[in-house]
Specification:
- By secondary structure, the chain is mainly β.
- The chain has no helices and 11 strands.
- Strands 2, 4, 5, 6, 9, 10 and 11 form a 7-stranded mixed β-sheet that branches.
- The termini are far apart.
- The mean pLDDT is about 95.
Length: about 120
């Protein structure tokens, strides 16, 4: 079974940067999509960024130009580099995976496997 474990969350000041990592194991799909989601208290879980095995990416509008999703050449680690953070970025961040290509719109029900989440807090 697919296992995902996030790390790297923490507290930063507005305007700062933070990098998240996700260790991935057990993936046997011929094609896949790896993605980051986030959820703030009282808010719906929302897609942040996705990447497929060929390196094709997509980003949600609120993070476009500020966040970068990537994976290493072994496909065992997923990363999210965040810069110019604002308090609106405060949320629990999750990595997720599913078979096939990334959907045009990242929606939580489309993803089969999830990590436990890591908290990101941005103070003003």
């Amino acid at each position: 079974q697919v296992q995902l474990v996030e790390s790297g969350g923490g507290s930063v000041q507005a305007g700062g940067s933070l990098g998240l990592s996700c260790e991935v194991s057990g993936v046997t799909w011929s094609s896949y999509c790896m993605a980051w989601f986030r959820q703030a208290p009282g808010k719906e879980r929302e897609g942040v960024a996705g990447i497929d095995r060929d390196g094709n990416t997509n980003y949600a509008l609120p993070v476009k130009g500020r966040f970068t999703i990537s994976q290493d050449n072994t496909k065992t680690n997923l990363y999210l580099q965040m810069k110019n953070l604002t308090p609106e970025d405060t949320a629990n961040y999750y990595c997720a995976a599913t078979g096939g290509r990334c959907p045009r719109v990242l929606e939580a029900p489309d993803f089969r496997a999830w990590g436990q989440g890591t908290q990101v807090t941005v103070s003003s």
